[in-house]
Fold this protein.
Amino acid sequence: MLKISVNGACGRMGARIAALVLEDPELKLVAALERHGHPSLGKDVGSIAACGETNIKITTTLNTQPDVLIDFSSPESAVAIADICAKKNIALVVGTTGLNTQQLEYIQQISKTIPCLVSPNMSIGVNVMFDLVAQMSKVLGKDFDIEILETHHRFKKDAPSGTALRIAEKICEATNKKMDKDVIYGRQGITGERPSDQICMHAIRSGDVIGEHTVIFGSLGERLEITHKAHTRDTFVRGAIRAAKFIAQKQPGMYRMSDVLKVKT
């Protein structure tokens, strides 16, 4: 049985991970972690995950030895727990978004010691979408303008989403564009005619939308759109659990969801 710990256990994603791990006969939840000062410290994680008494208390420190730790916390917490996983030889799955270049590079260094899987989106559908938009960008060519639209709940702290950024990266890789040169973030004022190589990302924050991403390919005379809509957070949770099962027996290194799903992304 695979032993799992969750960092960020009281968050929207962390609570659902705890609940679905407890339901999975192949898995055993052994630790639920949260930040110092969190009001739920000391409580049974089942009271947060709405799945009954589990005898697993929410703590700030990892006092057991899981096989895999799943992190959905904050960028700072993700880096801190990655360091602990490296010291304890625990495989790491990171679904936290908003990681900056320095934080990603730090986890990359840690992946030389332990297997690490980092993904801005654990959804199977989204990871297939990454591959599709890359193929479409290459085939449609310069005659089609590309715009990326993402919508999330009002509580999301980073913008644009990690998923939208990954979509832009895949398009840039497929079309020889540069993220720092050809991608812009919203428009305002007299912007002039749209440059043909430009990719623009638009971030909407509204209500309780779990996550929607649309890539628009538009030319003079036609428009093609590809959209992914997440109906429930369990979509991402199931992907994270699948990632944990995949990475548990892997050698040290940096992995993506594309490795789990065996797609090209």
Q: What stands out?
A: Residues 14 and 144 are 40 Å apart (CA to CA). The chain has a mean pLDDT of 95. The longest strand covers residues 145-152.
